TrEMBL record:
Annotated region described as Disordered, given as residue ranges: 560-589, 636-678
InterPro entries: HpyO/CreE_NAD-binding, L-asp_N-monooxygenase_NS-form
The protein's name in its UniProt record: FAD/NAD(P)-binding protein
Lineage: superkingdom: Bacteria
Amino acid sequence: MIVGAGPRATGLLERIAASASELWPPERRLLVHLVDPHPPGPGRIWRHEQSPLLRMNSMAEDVTLFTDESCAVEGPVRPGPSLAEWAARFAGPGAPRDAPYTEPADPEVLAELRTLAGTDFPTRRAQSAYLDWVFRRVTAELPPRITLVRHRTTATAVTGPPDGPQRVRLAGREHPVTADLVVLAQGHLGSAPAGEHRDHAAFARRHGRFHLAPDFSADADLSGLRPGSRVILRGFGLAFVDLMTLLTEGRGGTYRTEPDGTLRYLPSGREPVLHVGSRRGVPYHAKTHYRLGGPRPPLPRHFGPAAVDALLARDRPPELRRDVWPLMAKEIGFGHYHELFHAHPERTALPWPEFLAAYDRLDWYDPDLAALVAAAVPDPADRLDFEALDRPLAGLAFATPDAFQDHLRAHIAGDVARREDPAHSADLGAFLALLSVYGQLPRLLDPGRPAAGALAEGLDGWWHGFFSFLASGPPGFRLRQLLALSRAGIVHFLGADLRIGTDEPTGTFTASSPTVPGHTVHATALIEAYLPGPDLDRTRDPLLRRLRRAGGLTEEVVDGASRPHRSGRIAVDPADGRLIDPTLRGPHPRRFALGAPTNSRAVAAFARPGTDAPAFRQNDAVARTVLRTLAAGRAPEPFAGRGAGAAGAGQKSAGWWSGAGAGVSPGAKTETVPKTPS
């Protein structure tokens, strides 16, 4: 059974289909239950039923759910189209209309797909259509001996001995479903509010104000925000951008391009007034909107498996700043300078082979490396300065809020211009190296290594935030909209190191920042404009809550020199995704978990083509372990007489089912996914 039917579950099914011919006995049948109340393929996060204004922060050509020649997977590589390649099938009146490319039902989505360029940032509804098609293709390509049964409900509990069948309870069903193995792939999960958020929610209730704890923007109820009311938003990343869109365009505002090219916002009068700040005080960097000008950098070079092996072989655990960051920084620098030297050699003063030989030899913090870069790259704007990137407002203070608004508008405009100008394509080289670095990190976090907690805390904290700030920002047009909203007085910038408080006499939330000393904003609403992180203690998922209470899973806790680091993530065996069961003191033989809530820390369920995505490697490892485990089990009993209900209709003479009691409870309402493209 697979709990969850979003992109991660789809990727797992694709890998099961890919390896079935090698690992699954041809005389046996396999019944796969798929449990999710949301549409299979898109799941909850990417479902079609969300605002058409919301978009991806990836270009269409950078999104795929299919393995390619870059993927270091044990199973067969089975290429497929990226979102851009899939959308191209609908372009123009003469485009092919073969069955696997059946047109989406939504005419607006179809119109978007017909004009979608590879460098466009698609709507989330377009991505939903792509994920729906990928799911249908994957299920159509399942071997005939594998049957898929969907349950449009929520899994609420799983029980069963480690050496016997697992019983999974489903919401609204009297009888549980019995399965030999269970894979948890619920994706991003909500969390109950933490202490500070509970206090702020209580303050809001007491004074009749509005408070929103971290939430997924498409699910947030914003109806309580009145036109013209002041709203403080803590967070300047993608969640803020979504909320900004929903509270402006989503309330009837429009944008107009002036003759001089400036974007102007025309309010509807229904917008609240947004005051935004964060730790850095600036929005995430815009996504690059160009391609490499030179050859793709050969990654990894300085922070690959060999470098990780060397770090793990040391007697003392590696420290982030002392041991790991210098290698990460050097890898990112390699990607940056590889593109600069190959695409813009006129802005360099040394031949690439000479620069690379010296760069490879020198440590990141060696003064000779800084001297090498200064000599080889004359313009400081072409050099990497991580400290300036990380804290762009450090040491700055402004006498008035208006002075800061002017400064930040100039900063944002400069960032958008740079990310849309191919002359700065070295930034894309650095971005690709960032992705490569992220994929190497999970192996460093061995919970059993003494004092590894400080490294885990740094990676989950500073590093993840820095990565997101540089690599997971919005499309440039969103930041141009932000500038227009700022000029229109709809958005105001608060500054860095944001401090949030409450004022009982006025019943208002307060916000202040050392960026504008002495300036405090009072507001009737507070929004935590960031997504909920993994937190096993506060998860809203009923199955995980019950497993946690029953001692059936454990939170990742990494030993620390002074204190352990609790990540909030589900501990799994990194080799094959098996749940770490504290009662067994090791991996559970019949339960797996993969994706966002786990300590595997895979970046995303889908990825850029050609990047050997960690999620694809994980999907492949879990799929092959599942197939091997089931195939090595005892010979199952004949299917006849099992009472399999809807799942077994017409299948009694079809062969053998995997494991004991794998059928559906009598009377269950299920849907068997067809084996032909639809």
